[in-house]
Automatic annotation (TrEMBL):
The lineage of its organism: Bacteria, Thermotogati, Deinococcota, Deinococci, Deinococcales. InterPro entries: Indolamine_dOase, Trp/Indoleamine_2_3_dOase-like. This is Indoleamine 2,3-dioxygenase. Keywords: Iron, Metal-binding. SUPFAM superfamilies: Indolic compounds 2,3-dioxygenase-like. Pfam families: IDO. The keyword Nucleotidyltransferase does not apply.
Length: 410
């Protein structure tokens, strides 16, 4: 039986949430400048681009870090929250560059715990801990805090709907030339997919509310909006992940290397690719009740550890209600509600099918032997894993389709 409306926790009242307008993107547009000596860290990043695509960035980062004031980490406490986020993002990018040193990534880098410059290491770990994030290169710090748009004001609130292809750029590009352009497109893909995720969040929660209130017209309207929102996420990703836009022959060697990493001194910190941290699909799975079992389901749950605490709390609050919409549709929804629910499931499964097909094209790359600087830690570095990837995705696609209320038409 559906529960009464008051059973929904206050945390699920999106209108009151900081992410009501922006989904899991930062609630205010990323800050692009920092006061005093902090700006030097931001300025350093583009200066490293040439060396990152050449002889390596490590000596340059070590030298630069020596010139930073001794009390840099302590002084960061006086920055505003948005400024600290920008500094965390810059520190994460510098750690990222130091971690890999150069592209193409040398095979030795995969199993190494690098000797980071102490000033950078201290700053990064202190800021990560203060933000409630593990010391990782994650989606939030490397991508979601690293963009700009002429249509938003840094440090000010904005609406995710304002972000669209053509008006989002990477804020601090760390590769040069064509590789830099490709990196910019890659980061845009995630920022724009997450911007569309805001509509998935809204529609999913509207469906949940309608289910609790047993409001059939509201449930149908929410499911219609959810279907459109899931389609919009897929469209956004598919516009970019085409061989001549984000280039399949370059991605594995220059563009991907290698987003998502953990500091491994206490065992691998990170499970899976940073795509797992995408709010848009986390929301869609919750709204439609796609279970989190199997290897990918577990990795999806685990990957929430890399989200900021307020986002984790929000997903946690939604979790006990993940089957409420489907149950409502089955218990008192009419044919239209069932059709709409199944259309949502079908479109989420379609996104997963296109991600599988495009993902494997990118994993195959140009077909030449390369160090596998690929995404995710579920696969051994250096091992071609197109096949393993497809199997992993197949299981998630099956789990998604299984949520339909009626069998799939032949
Ligand atoms: C185009 C090249 C891409 C490749 C090769 C790729 C590869 C992968 C891999 C290997 C996984 C499984 C993670 C693991 O266990 O290691 C994964 C999962 C995932 N990726 Fe990607 N990915 C690509 C693009 C994207 C993009 C552009 C997005 C979204 C903006 C994305 C979103 C996701 C999501 C949401 C998952 C979790 C699985 C699911 O919900 O179905 N991926 N990807």
């Amino acid at each position: 039986m559906p529960q009464p409306a008051h059973a929904l926790p206050a945390l699920l009242d999106t209108d009151a949430q900081p992410f009501a307008r922006t989904g899991f993107l930062p609630a205010r547009a990323p800050v692009l400048h920092l006061p005093g000596s902090f700006q030097a860290l931001l300025d350093l990043i583009p200066e490293l681009a040439g060396a990152y695509g050449g002889g390596g960035v490590r000596p340059l980062i070590r030298e630069a870090a020596q010139a930073w004031p001794a009390d840099l980490t302590r002084a960061s406490r006086d920055l505003s929250g948005d400024q600290r986020d920008a500094l965390l993002s810059a520190a994460a990018v510098l750690m990222h560059l130091y971690r890999w040193d150069a592209v193409p990534v040398h095979p030795d880098r995969f199993h190494e715990v690098p000797d980071f410059p102490p000033a950078l290491n201290r700053l990064f770990r202190t800021l990560s801990a203060a933000r409630g994030l593990p010391p990782c290169g994650n989606l939030y710090t490397l991508k979601y805090l690293n963009w700009r748009s002429p249509d938003v004001t840094p440090g000010e609130p904005y609406d995710a709907g304002m972000l669209r292809a053509g008006n989002v750029q990477m804020a601090r590009v760390f590769q040069a030339g064509l590789a830099g352009e490709q990196l910019d497109l890659w980061i845009q893909t995630f920022v724009l997919a997450e911007a569309r995720g805001q509509a998935v969040l809204h529609a999913g929660l509207a469906a949940l509310r309608a289910a609790h209130e047993q409001d059939r017209p509201a449930l149908e309207a929410a499911l219609l909006a959810l279907r459109d929102a899931v389609r919009a996420v897929a469209r956004e990703v598919n516009v970019f992940t085409r061989f001549h836009v984000i280039r399949t022959d370059l991605w594995r060697v220059y563009t991907q290397p290698t987003f998502g990493w953990g500091l491994t001194e206490r065992g691998p910190v990170l499970e899976g690719a940073s795509g797992l941290q995408l709010g848009a699909t986390q929301f869609a799975d919750l709204a439609l009740g796609v279970p989190l079992h199997g290897p990918l389901g577990r990795a999806l749950r685990h990957s929430r550890a890399y989200l900021p605490p307020e986002q984790r709390a929000f997903l946690r609050a939604w979790e006990p209600h993940r089957y409420a919409v489907r149950r409502a549709v089955l218990a008192w929804g009419d044919t239209r509600a069932r059709d709409l629910f199944d259309a949502c499931v079908q479109d989420l499964a379609r996104w997963r099918v296109s991600h599988r097909e495009r993902g494997s094209a990118y994993l195959r790359g140009d077909g030449q032997e390369h160090v596998m600087a690929s995404t995710g830690t579920q696969f051994a570095a250096g091992t071609p894993h197109d096949h393993a990837f497809r199997q992993l995705m197949d299981s998630r696609i099956e789990d998604t389709r299984a949520q339909r209320t009626k069998p799939e038409p032949p």
